[in-house]
Amino acid sequence: MSNDQEIIDDYTERVGRHLTGPARDKAKAELGAHLSDAAEAGELGHALSRLGTPREAAASFAELRSAPPAPMNARLAAVVIDNLPLVGVTLTLLVQAIRQFPDLGNGFALSFPPLVYVKIGDGCMSVGPSAICESGVYDYAGLLYSIGVPLAMLWSIVGLGLIESLTGTTPGKRLLKLCVVTESGLRPHPAAGLGRRLSLLVGPVAWLDWLPVLWGDRRRLLDLLIGTKVVRAARQGSPSTV
Questions:
Q1: Distance between CA atoms of 73 and 96, rounded to whole angstroms?
Q2: Which end of the chain is more exposed for a tag (fewer CB within 10 A), N or C?
Q3: Rg (CA), the chain
């Protein structure tokens, strides 16, 4: 029986990894009880076979599969909170640019998200429009642009992406009671958590990613491509459709 219990614990734990919120605890408790009964009847193997892989079993407990999309105002507020380091760097760049170059006629230098560039010798290569190189923004910004922006981007893309894939949410989304799930209501894979943030690398062009949010099921372009969505997080004891 001890071996059966190890199998049950391992299976329920792996099922829980695909879920977020109350659904995770509910799935582990119900599956644990069901599999324990099956083990006592000598049918544990048959029960596991019927349940399928942990991901397949988790799908039947995915309470957020049919949850409505999160409201736009809550999503934007969560974005600001999650990306405070990037917002702070951008505002500092703006103040610095206005103080040093009040006649700087280049909107890209003052954009959010800031454009990413790579300086090679005396030259410069930017991910977005070349105007950032022509403006000389990398000259006056110094370490703030060459170190501050990459570190802030690292948090916004890698840090938040991994947190989201591990917990189904981020600090900002948790505060606004939102979470990210796949179309089947499961927690996103780490690759999805990172992928849905890559638009930040193209500077202000990243806002084009948000255009589809204005209609339909209010999902960003990258969400549509990757197969994820932002919904209201389920509350303890609430029904599956929040």
A1: 30
A2: N
A3: 23
